[in-house]
Amino acid sequence: MALAPTVQLLAALSAVAALLVLAVAGAVLARGPLGRPVVYGGALAVTLLAAVSALTAIPAPIGGLVLPLGIPWIGANLRLDALSAVFLVVVNLGGAAASLYGLGYGRHDHAPERVLPFFPAFLAGMNLVPLAADAYTFLLAWEFMSLASWALVISHDKEAGNVQAGLVYILMASFGTLALMLAFGLLAAGGGGFTFEAMRAAPPTGWAGAVVLVLALLGAGSKAGLVPLHVWLPLAHPAAPSHVSALMSGVMTKVAVYGFIRIVFDLAGPPDWWWGIPVIVAGAIAGVVGVLQALLQSDTKRVLAFSTIENIGLIFVGLGLALAFKASGFGGAAALAFTAALFHVFNHAAMKSLLFFGAGAVLTATGSRVMDRLGGLIHRMPVTSVVMLIGAAAISALPPLNGFASEWLVFQAILLSPELPAWGLKLSVPAAGALLALAAALAAACFVRLYGIVFLGRPRSEQAANAHEVDAFSRAAMIALAAICVAAGLFPGLVIDALQPAVTALIGVKMPAQSEVAWLSIVPVAESRSSYNGLLVFLFIASSALLTAFIIHRLATGAVRRAPPWDCGFPNADPVTQYSAGSFAQPIRRVFARTLFAARERVEMPPPGSLAPARIEITARDPAWAFLFLPLAGLVERIATRANRLQYLTIRQYLALVFGALVLLLLVLALWT
Amino acid sequence: MDRTLEIAHGTPLDAALSASLVFDVAHLFAGALVLISFLMLYQDRLYALLKVFALQAVVLSLSVGWQALAQDAPHLYVTAAIALVFKAVVIPLALARMVARLGIHRQVETVVSIGPTMLAGIALVALSLVVMLKATAAVGGAADALAREDLAFALSVVLLGLLMMVTRRNAVSQVIGFMSLENGLILAATGAKGMPLVVEISVAFSVLIALIVIGIFLFRIRERFDTVDVDALDRFRGGRA
Questions:
Q1: Of A64, A87, A194, A499, which cross-links A130 as Cys (Cβ 3.0–4.6 Å)?
Q2: How do residues B89-111 score in pLDDT, each as one tens digit?
Q3: pLDDT below 50 — which residues of chain A?
Q4: Residue A550 class from Cβ within 10 Å (0-12 exposed, 13-18 middle, 19+ buried)?
Q5: Which of B163, B234, B237 has its CB closest to that of A659?
Q6: Which residue does chain A place closest to B169, by CA atoms?
Q7: A670–B230 CB contact, under 8 Å
Q8: How far, in Å, CA of A534 to CA of A401, rounded?
Q9: Contact B135 A667 (CB under 8 A)
Q10: Is A545 on the interface with B (CB under 8 A)?
Q11: Are A511 and A493 within 8 A, CB to CB?
Q12: For B40, how many CA atoms within 13 A lie in the half-sphere containing its CB?
């Protein structure tokens, strides 16, 4: 191989090795008092260094290395290019935050020996995937990541449903790996080599390329959580300990996105014009279905897991647009869409980790993830409340935070779609844009609901009333992530410029340099068309808020008048009369979920005089389960039941089977040739 | 013997004559094997079946001996001797002793009656002829006519042996079906030139060991269930016959 190893590649490899050593140390020290500080502290140091090193690797030349491991005639091919570096930054920033959080959060873990060995191993797997440069190493790292996270999902195996979540997860992960394996097989068939270099040199032609696209969409999509392959995600992500949930939702789904980009943009050759359509459609559906289901959940971590599906949908729409523009020869627009997707990858990793940390903090403080048992935490957990507010605002795409910047870029790319020549794209892209707009609005409703029910109002349970702020490590991790969200929102141009080497490598064109734009604005296409300045929006919001506060507090009358507060005509002051998670979602549930999820409400009113409580029961089903997975499981079971009869044949019947098969094959041979 | 060898390596005229003779005799033995397979299918008494099986083994050893002569491959004489000693003498005698000790010499319950079995056997022979002649035709000149027809007959014997295993209920007759199947394999192997002696001996020994194992099992089954009818095993296993 012509590529020489760079310092950053060696640093990334040493990080993987160090994390594996930490995994062993975790297994040895788990029960002792040293286990938690050594593992999380070590992982924090390693991932921080790796993140810095990867950041410097984005604009650096490509480094390559072949280690004599794995399949003998191929070896372990490793490569660090701009795209890998971008994802390594995401992985290691998320990993560093989770390690910092784990330093405090891990104290409450009842069985640290089930978490400590696998946490660094999981990080090592996610670090290795972007470095892999041959199919074998890639799949090995991918499976290692899956298995380590699976072990973390079932770490609390005594809690109801966790083991089943692990089973669904491992099944879907195996399916995804199978799809990727087939995709690599097709890619290798063209050039006859399993290294990415050989695949790149001889990309598949004709239908083979299309099949690779579909397989990559299935394989990476099942890991990332595209509908209808998302069913494992809302089960598995909340089942893990919160810092691991953050890693799975914020980081591992991004590694899946990396896999998709690597295969489709890098290895599968020049795209056909229609390649973007399935990606855009899958993304748009994931966006709407994900956020609608998030609105129906009453468990904080499940809300966040479903919201991940929505954000993955947004990222895939961006990638699909980039494919469509690239295939039609619009380099600038493709670069814009691709940048938007990468930017959202970074943003979502930061804000979803932050939100999961917040949910974990609430879980630590109150012992509950059920929204209807929380409330009023803003007085008891002020720091958590503020950072959660930042996270919720960011993920709802409110300016001046980072979520807005990347979603705005995606919509800027969608607005360029009328220039596309193909009618299929001209029509489907605006439709997908409308779905995304709906998803963005619903996401805002979803996080207003989450924040409002959990942090505002009055506590709905004793535990919520007695909650205390979490430890300093957890707070530090959340504050750091909130700072990243704010910084990336105020100075999006810096992030966009930093991403450009990766964009140039895969699209061939880059966006206009944002550092040359005055006043820290960002200009996706041309100044005459659109521009956005996060800092200006922030200053406007800050100054108008200050002005309002000044007017109210200084210029209003100082006279005090006391009166009873308006109680909505309902004088019962019990906290359970507040809006609940279910009642807040009711209008949206009735409008959207009735047909899509067959959501039904059943009200049970006791007759007059009865002391039984009135009950409302809400049922909803996931169409993916109802129409895809349950029939599939039923089919497998029916076939297995039929095949089971083969276990009870007589000896002669077995012989007859062999005989019949032999005669049949001979007949085929006689008639065929 | 020596005279025939001389003919085989004699003048061109003699060679042509001997080639036709070699072919005809080999054909005769192979055809006889198939015919004896049919005879076995027809037998419904165990002693008769054993005798026919011994006859097949004798013909097999003659066939192998003829091949040894024709191919000038002395190691095949060893094969022929093994076939003669074990398959024509030792195994039938052993099985006959077993049958006598088990006292089952009167029973051979066939699952499918003789007529349809014979018809199926004819169909199988036709099928194997079609398959083998077609398949070896693709090879072209590499396989001579002798080897091709030999292979077709051998496949017939294998299939008829399998058919026997499937259509009999008694464990002893299943064993004989298995041995007869193995006869077909040896016929195929000797018809094709150049099979090493080691393979030959190991096959012979594996068959012998199979006989011993099956024999032991037969007595064990008999001790346990008072019968060697394999359906009794199935009833015991809860099989759905």
A1: A87
A2: 988 898 888 888 877 767 666 77
A3: 1
A4: exposed
A5: B163
A6: A652
A7: no
A8: 7
A9: no
A10: no
A11: no
A12: 37
Element (H, E) at A420: none
Let me know if B11 is exposed, middle or buried by CB neighbors in 10 A (0-12, 13-18, 19+): exposed
Q: Structural domain tally of chain B?
A: 1
Q: Over range B122-146, report the average pLDDT.
A: 76
Asked if the bond preceding A68 is cis, omega within 30° of 0, the reply is: no
Interval B38-97: pLDDT, tens: 999 888 788 888 999 999 999 999 998 888 888 787 878 888 888 888 888 988 898 888
- Residue A375 CB neighbours (<10 A): 25
* E strand or H helix that includes residue A440: helix A423-455
Q: How far is B18 from chain A (nearest CA, A)?
A: 33
Query: Does B32 contact chain A (CB < 8 Å)?
Result: no
Q: Is residue B239 scored above 60 in pLDDT?
A: no
Q: Report how far apart, in Å, the C-alpha atoms of B115 and of each of A260, A523, B160 are.
A: 65, 91, 14
| Residue closest to A246 by CA, chosen among A102, A367, A443 | A102
Residue B228 predicted with pLDDT over 70: no
Q: Are the CB atoms for B187 and B60 separated by under 8 Å?
A: yes
DSSP-derived letter for residue A373 is G
- In the numeric block, the tokens 């003699």 are attached to B14
**Inter-chain CB proximity A655 and B135 less than 8 Å:** no
Amino acid A594: pLDDT: 87
* Average pLDDT over all residues of chain B: 78
Instruction: Write a three-state SS string for A86-111.
Output: HHHHHHHHHHHHHHHHHHHHHHHCCC
Report the residue of B128, B155, B162, B172 to disrupt the A interface, i.e. the one with the largest count of A CBs within 10 Å.
B162
Residue type, B101: R
- At residue A592, the 3 state secondary structure works out as helix
Q: Is A648 in contact with B239 (CB distance < 8 Å)?
A: yes
A651, A656, A670 ranked by CB distance to B134: nearest: A670
Q: Given B131, B163, B238, which is nearest A670 (Cβ)?
A: B131
Separation CA A656–CA A662 (nearest Å): 10
- Phi and psi, residue A565, nearest 5°: -70, 155
Find the residue in A nearest to B163 (Cα). Answer: A659
Span B113-129, average pLDDT = 90
Q: What is the mean pLDDT of residues B139-164?
A: 78
Residues 6+ apart with CB under 8 A from A139: A177, A180, A181, A184
Cβ-proximal residues to B214 (8 Å cutoff; 6+ apart), any chain = B171, B175, B178
CB contact under 8 A, A652 and B166: yes
Closest CA of chain A from B176, distance in Å: 14
Closest among A571, A365, A538, A340 to A436, alpha carbons compared: A340
User: What tens digit of pLDDT does each residue of A568-590 get?
Assistant: 776 777 888 888 888 899 999 99
d(CA B195, CA B78): 12
Give the CA dihedral A369, A373, A378, A380, nearest 10 degrees: -90
Q: Do A662 and B234 touch (CB under 8 A)?
A: no
Q: What is the DSSP string of A29-92?
A: HTTSTTHHHHHHHHHHHHHHHHHHHHHHHSSSPPEEEEES-SSTTT-EEEEE-HHHHHHHHHHH
Three state DSSP letters for A444-505: HHHHHHHHHHHHCCCCCCHHHHCCCCCCHHHHHHHHHHHHHHHHHHHCHHHHHHHHHHHHHH
The number of C-beta contacts closer than 8 angstroms across A and B is 51
Interface ipTM: 0.79
